[in-house]
Amino acid sequence: MNKRVIIIGAGFAGLDATHVLSNQEGVEVVLIDKNNYHTFTPLLYQVATCGLDPSSIAYPIRSIFRNKKNVQFLMGKVTEIDYRAKHIAVMTENGLRQEAYDYLMVATGSVIDHFGQESIEAQSFGLKDLDDAIALRQHILKLFEKATWTQDIEARDAMTTFAVVGGGPTGIETAGALYELYNYVLLQEYGDNQPPLKVRVLLLEASETLLAPYPSALQNAAIEQLGSLGVEVVLNAKVTEVTPDALYLADGRLIHTHTLIWSAGVKASPILSLLDVEPQRWGRVKPLETLQLPDREGVYLAGDLVYLEDDKGQPYPMVIQVAKQQGKVAAENILRELSNQPLKLFKYNDLGIMATIGRSRAVAWLFNRVQLRGYLAWLAWLFLHLVTLLGFKNRASVFVSWVWNYFTYDRSVRIILDDNRLRKPAPIEQLQEE
Amino acid sequence: MNKRVIIIGAGFAGLDATHVLSNQEGVEVVLIDKNNYHTFTPLLYQVATCGLDPSSIAYPIRSIFRNKKNVQFLMGKVTEIDYRAKHIAVMTENGLRQEAYDYLMVATGSVIDHFGQESIEAQSFGLKDLDDAIALRQHILKLFEKATWTQDIEARDAMTTFAVVGGGPTGIETAGALYELYNYVLLQEYGDNQPPLKVRVLLLEASETLLAPYPSALQNAAIEQLGSLGVEVVLNAKVTEVTPDALYLADGRLIHTHTLIWSAGVKASPILSLLDVEPQRWGRVKPLETLQLPDREGVYLAGDLVYLEDDKGQPYPMVIQVAKQQGKVAAENILRELSNQPLKLFKYNDLGIMATIGRSRAVAWLFNRVQLRGYLAWLAWLFLHLVTLLGFKNRASVFVSWVWNYFTYDRSVRIILDDNRLRKPAPIEQLQEE
What we know:
The structure is a homodimer of 434-residue chains.
Chain A: E1 3-8, H1 12-21, E2 27-33, E3 37-39, H2 44-48, E4 58-60, H3 61-64, E5 71-82, E6 87-92, E7 95-100, E8 103-106, E9 110-112, H4 118-123, H5 130-148, H6 153-159, E10 161-165, H7 169-189, E11 200-204, H8 216-229, E12 232-234, E13 239-243, E14 246-249, E15 254-256, E16 259-262, E17 266-268, E18 299-301, H9 320-338, E19 352-358, E20 361-366, E21 370-373, H10 374-389, H11 395-408, H12 419-422
Parallel strand pairs in A: 1-2, 1-8, 2-5, 8-18, 10-11, 10-16, 11-12
Antiparallel strand pairs in A: 3-4, 5-6, 6-7, 9-17, 13-14, 14-15, 19-20, 20-21
């Protein structure tokens, strides 16, 4: 009798875990995700800024595991985990289903953390999933259509002022790409106004530096490259309140804008509350180093929602490489349990971090030793992402789009979908959402 | 003082008219559309069946006229035409705007005609614009996710039964592409069920033949090719009533299905009611042969909403070639009016018609003389559509997608977007929709 492994979440951790378990004898896998696709999250900002099609970074999960006979996919949202009876409840297109497991891997990652600030949660855009990216793209394009037909200069300037909050890689990449979208594309196409439309992209960071984990030379390089591109970096800027057309900083400054992109924080997926466990910092939960959850038989954790520390007592960052490596170790440990082998302990193999700022602008910090900046760092970033996409079929069209963009400075994915019409005809039974 | 030409509708007629007027001295053009993109409608069915990305067939209007200094684009919906005072009202992202014109070209095409059958209007999917195509794609993919986890065979079969109504090119292309999506892709990826998922694609036509304007040899070739592909063609089948999970034919037959795709009829855009003119058949309006609307000074019509007849008294079909040629003639006549030259009369130069049924399957009827079918017709169709796309930048990625699909039998654009999440955050001011 096969053991049934349920993996919740088809992000980087869940995908790598499923790969380890696929076509293995003695196990069958049910992979559950609320979407029918895996999202290549590092390029979400490219979708938001019209550089890539949504489908270029979203790959159908069923295609990935097409030839894996022991892998099933279930689209739905987990609403209950009964870890004593070892089954879960999932809200699907077919209504609520109950699914039993022998092993359960919870790998649902993280969500945006607004730090309890309600006006930010209500008024800001995020960049955590594909729907976020499309919503932001729609919003930006509509604002430009609006601004170009607006006479009042102050009102117009507010429409073309974009505030990105958070000096991590997502904030930096988004701010840079936004400015490039304006500079290389929109500036040419909304050129009728006198005086011409003026765009401001502000990168607001609450602390006194960008890219906290990087060496200070690279932090400064990032600030410099953002400045040379046209992005205004504002350090020590803490957002306290947001309205539809303005935001306020802690020091009383007021910025007129219709767009706040919040990339200042994430916290562990709320699914952990279904497990009755004590959360650590950022809502993350501490498993054993084997990634087993103590006192929850057969339950493993992997990815952003895991709280584990390195040798120096520092928590592992919520990044893709940690998630992938944890997904693999957790899946291997399930196989080891089944063959009565000793379990592996998770230890992060840190290859480095990088952030891109725009065309030919980036910083990279590799093997805790090598510092790259500018064109070389950008090439390294481009190469790494293309190689990483190699596992997916989409790389051909992603590559074509990129090459095209590079030579033409064009961004062709600039369609505003009709939010209203997308809703109808109503699906026969609506998937219940929280 | 420049004359101000307002063109309503950036379809094939409006686009060609704008091209004629762009960079011409003495005129300025305001092109109005409710979308910020032009839609290459002949390939909508490819978006609905996961073969192409929405942006591959939707090109930003501002990009098309980027270097045309006398062309402005306004995104919005025309709500009023005051042909005496010569101005219109447009609902935009900025609220209601009033725009004055010297010349007005109305080129808003056609909409789906449900022939007053309310249950069909409420329950059916259309394929008239990009939002339709995306809504249909979402629906199909969700049904497959649902069917594969459904035990009851009858209920399951209803989910994987697709009824396409209307034996014109759109109906034929959609039915063929749907069957290919199942046969080459979904069959492999939803393969866990015992017995396996079974798909039926029905093409229902109320009359006794498909492709009414074609010679009967080609009509029969189309029926034969659809049959060899796997599509069930049902002639003399008139749909009378639709429910969420069934449809009824006039002869009492009942078909269990959750998907009715309605491509059985179109009628002229309802904007014509703003002009206080008497509609002809299909709600179309008859202008002079110069495409001027009588008694409405400065108003021209072009495209699907025009009712004009050929030498034999037959109304011109509502097809792209007629629309493009009318757009050109109407625009040329505006220039001729300005330079006091005699106006041109519209006369349709009919190059032919073609419909594709699937990979290597098509029919073409060229120059009212040449009949092509099968592989050769399909190559002609492919060539024509690629050449037509040449005017747009997207052709590179469209071509890559097609070549890729041809060799891999893959359809990669299979992402289900979250209808609920696409709605938020709410736009600051919602564009008012009818």
